[in-house]
Amino acid sequence: MTEPELIEGILRRDRNAFQYLVNRYEKQVIKTAFYFIGNMEDAEDLSQEIFLDIIYSMGSFKRSSTLSTWIYRITVNKSLNMVKKQQRRGIMVRLESYFRSVPDHGVAKEAEPSHTGNEVEKKEMNEMLHAAISRLPENQRIAFVLCKFEEQTYRQIADIMKIGLPAVESLIHRAKLNLQKHLVYQFSEYQKT
Amino acid sequence: MDCTQFKTSITAFREDTLSGDQRRSAERHLAACPACSGLLAQFNSLDAVIAEQKAASPNTFAATRILQRIENEFERPGKIHSHGWVRMLQPVAIAIALLCGILIGSYTATKGTPGTDQLVTSPGNIEFLRSNLFISDFADEDKILVLNK
Asked: Is the ipTM of this complex over 0.85?
């Protein structure tokens, strides 16, 4: 199925076109969402909303870029919205737990699943990396994730973000410097513990 | 090169974009500084973490679930899908409507309803009150009859 055929099929609400769309872009959508959200299950859940959005918004697709680029744009926007929601929810949960906190003297905590030292270290590294990425300004985060994780070229990133090539270069350079700063601090703190 | 200088050029060192002199200076510093060597090792371990994330693949049933969701969405005829901005405007519209209601209500309460004096003095209003509050015109006459008896 060619891209114009796929687009026409989706506009006609053709089931075969839906199936082709999902099979063709499922991994791209889920993995991009995963790189921003940091959790595969959440990314899979969000991908359902993303595909519905793609189908409903297909009428507004101008065809000035490739379908893949347009889908990347929707995925990035939806993922960033989800991250913001999670951050807001996180603040509320922390506030709730702060006000509800009761002393748990003598109460045995549930045993955490055992991990080997290497697994723990990897998990912590993963968390530190994700925390550092999520502290980047939004544009730097998008450019960095698309470049480093999605392995998109600077040209593709420029198309997805609707900016020029020099702007992409600058964003990625600044993202790397910011990440370096955050990670140096986090690693130094980690070494102290 | 000292620790601060190394920390600010660690990415350039890893990406091999330092000049020859800078690189040699950084290597000399690394040989003498265990803290910066440890830091470099941690940065290098991030490559493995990123590679692991890139290798992660979605659940094999993810596509089926997406298709099922799409099926469900289009099975329901007459369902109106609202865009994000419409969904965002809905609470704003409700808030505006509520505010208008409160303003209109408070305005009519102060300006639109007559005072107690006006109600009593107008003969039309006395009739209205009598009929609505079940006060019979004969009530006074009944009272007089009872007294006469």
From this structure: no
Q: Are the C-beta atoms of A30 and A47 separated by less than 8 Å?
A: yes
List the single residue in A40, A125, A183 with the smallest CB-CB distance to B56: A40
List b or e across A82-104, with b for residues whose CB sees 16 or more CB atoms inside 10 angstroms: bbeebeeeeeeeeeeeeeeeeee
Nearest by CB to B67, from A18, A129, A177: name it.
A18
Closest Cα in chain B, distance from residue A101 (Å): 33
CA distance A120 to B44: 17
On whether the A121-193 domain is CATH 3.50.50.60, my answer is no
pLDDT of A178 higher than 60: yes
For chain A, domain boundaries: 1-100, 121-193
Model pLDDT for residues A13-47, shown as the tens digit of each residue: 999 999 999 999 999 999 999 999 988 999 999 99
* CA-based nearest residue in chain B for residue A38: B53
A contacts of B81 (beta carbons < 8 Å)? 52, 56
Q: Is the pLDDT of residue A182 over 60?
A: yes
CATH topology of domain A1-100: Rna Polymerase Sigma Factor; Chain: A (1.10.1740)
pLDDT, tens digit (0-9, with 9 covering 90-100), for A49-69 = 999 999 999 999 988 889 999
For chain A, say whether B79 makes contact (Cβ under 8 Å): no
